[in-house]
Hints:
The protein contains 14 helices and 19 strands. A hairpin with a 2-residue loop joins strand 2 (19-24) and strand 3. The protein is 32% helix and 20% strand. Strands 1, 2, 3, 4, 5, 16, 17, 18 and 19 form a 9-stranded mixed beta sheet that branches.
Amino acid sequence: MFNNVHVFDGKSASLSGPSNVLVRGNRIEKISTTAIPADAAKGATIIDGGGRTLMPGLIDAHWHAMLVRPSPAQALTADLGYTTLLAAAEATDTLMRGFTTVRDLGGPAFSLKRAIDDGLVVGPRIFPSGAILTVTGGHGDFRQLFEVPRIEGMPLARMEELGAAKVTDSPDEVTRRAREQVLLGASQIKLTASGGVSSPHSPIDVITFTPAELTAAVQVAKDRGTYVTAHAYTPPAMQRAVEAGVQCIEHGQLMDEPTAKLMAEKGVWLSIQPFPDGMEKIFPPGSDEREKALEVMKGTDRAYELAKKYHLKTAFGSDVLFSPDLAKRQGALLASLTKWYTPAEALTMATSTNAELLALSGERSPYRGKLGVVEEGALADLLLVDGDPIANIKLVADPAKNFVVIMKDGKIYKNTLPQHP
Length: 421
């Protein structure tokens, strides 16, 4: 039980008055401004909040658990067992940064998720996409040139063997591969509707999937009670995806006003990332990848402006790839949203708003219960913050110092405060 805390509930613009919060099992059982009776709290561990802030665990809506620490070459050539162990270590660090849930948008994370859920590894909840669906020459096609052409019946490329990405060049292939990912446990289907930054043969301006291919993916998702999210930067790619029934656009930094208006009319989510200055440096100087990163980053301000103007349902994610150093700044990336939003709006985005996006998975959600809020009946994913993050959002940028208690699913993973029986 948390005594004497001020609650940020994941939705409000201000903290509550002094409150007490009782957790039983993996749920929040009671929130009260008066003392919770001793018989109700019998046997509970008492945490004296000392007037600190209790808030929901943070949610990163665009994460790649398997791709944070390795380089692109290592991700494709290293033993998958070692890469998974590397990802497990990063998963523990992710949770210790206060991110109790991530939406994984591409990579062979199913085994890691199972190990976390089974208690073998400490890490966040994972909403996995499994392999990214791409097309020949699309974002996510990391094949070497000598692996082209692909001939019917030939072995899968290394990236496909690993479960990182699948090449789908027809509606039938899209249908098959999308069904496979749901079979393996995907909570949503991820595809790449435009070119991308990190792929070597994928210019930003290209449109990849045909309308029929996009529709095939959307139909699989609809039939299985979930949704499709599409990587897309440019207006033509975004518009084609939206018209096909995709429910979430990832990135969108190069969107224009007609595209934002279309997304608003269709109720489509924008999962955009506040890419930090210097992000391009993870790619070699003079490389196409670095130039593409710079092009995308220039559009971030305008994209957020349009998202606010048209009241788009906007999610926060970090999209850290191939950079363990940048991963350490996950909380700082969230804090950087104050360039466009108030601290309360930014924190809401990373908690209850992101949870609304996760809820699009419906029955394919791997977790039963409400996330992203501090309210009775919700899942007990909680952070106790030494200070008021609404008054000083920079507190989330230093989780080692400022997150004194980290709880996920009712279990305490960090507690630097004195405990009283």
